[in-house]
């Protein structure tokens, strides 16, 4: 199993450009999520999904869109990039769709380092 | 608001020393998880604690969940350079199917 894969690893955008960060998992996990990681702030949840066709907002959803057409894929779209979106983005998946239950171990991808100039 | 505060923010120690890092909240959590993250990689789960007062051991790492389920600690015995990394605690929010993470403790173990 490849686990959780993310592409690209690095990306530089100009302000106003749009792009899609790709995330895929091959573990048949129902729960998938996107986080951003900034120095001194830990991981903050952007959006999450409990299954194909079902998505919901996290703590910092503004400026980002997601969709979940298949169990395997969960892309994150930046609509109009801003310097404040410079960050490292992590995709994660989990067997359990309830994060407060057993089996809620989050499996993280290697991250995408995004710089917006 | 359910927040997780981790301390210290940064810890630099010599190989062989013992250390404890903390994860505290004013809110009750049904469970807490500890992750370790190495540079350039995603976090990896170390342990989940679910019962107040629970103690779990993972080789030289000892995890404790507070009796009131508002805090947790991670103790490392005889730290090694391979323990270097960012240690994050995380817990589920009461409402919504979301995890909240602390800001983390950066540990550097020098040989």
Quick recap:
The complex is a heterodimer of chains A (117) and B (111). Chain A has 117 residues and is mainly β. Chain A has strands at residues 4-7, 10-13, 19-25, 31-37, 43-51, 54-57, 64-66, 76-78, 87-94, 107-108, 112-116.
Could you characterize what this model shows?
The complex is a heterodimer of chains A (117) and B (111). Helices cover 0% and strands 48% of the residues of chain A. Chain A has strands at 4-7, 10-13, 19-25, 31-37, 43-51, 54-57, 64-66, 76-78, 87-94, 107-108, 112-116. Chain A is globular. By secondary structure, chain B is mostly beta strands. In chain B, 0% of the residues lie in helices and 52% in strands. Chain B has no helices and 11 strands. The radius of gyration of chain B is 13 Å and the shape is globular. The termini of chain B are far apart. The interface between A and B is medium-sized, with 29 and 27 residues.
Helix content of chain B: under 10%
- Helical content of chain A stands at under 10%
Return residue spans of chain B where pLDDT drops below 50 for at least 5 consecutive residues. Answer: none
List the quaternary state of the chains. Answer: heterodimer
Q: Name the average pLDDT of chain A.
A: 94
Tell me the layout of helices and strands.
The complex is a heterodimer of chains A (117) and B (111).
Chain A: E1 4-7, E2 10-13, E3 19-25, E4 31-37, E5 43-51, E6 54-57, E7 64-66, E8 76-78, E9 87-94, E10 107-108, E11 112-116
Parallel strand pairs in A: 2-11
Antiparallel strand pairs in A: 1-3, 3-8, 4-5, 4-9, 5-6, 7-8, 9-10, 9-11
Chain B: E1 5-7, E2 10-14, E3 19-24, E4 32-37, E5 44-49, E6 55-58, E7 61-65, E8 71-76, E9 85-92, E10 99-101, E11 105-110
Parallel strand pairs in B: 2-11
Antiparallel strand pairs in B: 1-3, 3-8, 4-5, 4-9, 6-7, 7-8, 9-10, 9-11
Features of the shown structure:
heterodimer; A: 117 residues; mainly beta; seven-stranded mixed β-sheet; four-stranded antiparallel β-sheet; B: 111 residues; six-stranded mixed β-sheet; five-stranded antiparallel β-sheet; 11 strands
């Amino acid at each position: 199993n490849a686990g959780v894969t993310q592409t690209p690893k690095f990306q530089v955008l100009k302000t106003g450009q749009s792009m899609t960060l790709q995330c895929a998992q091959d573990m048949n996990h129902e729960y998938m999520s996107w986080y951003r990681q900034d120095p001194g702030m830990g991981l903050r949840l952007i959006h999450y999904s409990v299954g194909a066709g079902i998505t919901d907002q996290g703590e910092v959803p503004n400026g980002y869109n997601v969709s979940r057409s298949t169990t395997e894929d969960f892309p994150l779209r930046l609509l109009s990039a801003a310097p404040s979106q410079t960050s490292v983005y992590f995709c994660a998946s989990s067997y359990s769709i309830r994060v407060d239950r057993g089996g809620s171990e989050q499996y993280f991808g290697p991250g995408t380092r995004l710089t917006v100039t | 608001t359910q927040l997780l505060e981790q301390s210290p923010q940064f810890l630099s120690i010599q190989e062989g020393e013992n250390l404890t890092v903390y994860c505290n909240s004013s809110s009750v959590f049904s469970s807490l998880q500890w992750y370790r993250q190495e540079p350039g990689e995603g976090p990896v789960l170390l342990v989940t604690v679910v019962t107040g007062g629970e103690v779990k051991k993972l080789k030289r790492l000892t995890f404790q969940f507070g009796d009131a389920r508002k805090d947790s600690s991670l103790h490392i015995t005889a730290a090694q350079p391979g323990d270097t990394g960012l240690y994050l605690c995380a817990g589920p929010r009461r409402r919504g199917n979301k995890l909240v993470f602390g800001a983390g403790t950066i540990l550097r173990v020098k040989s």
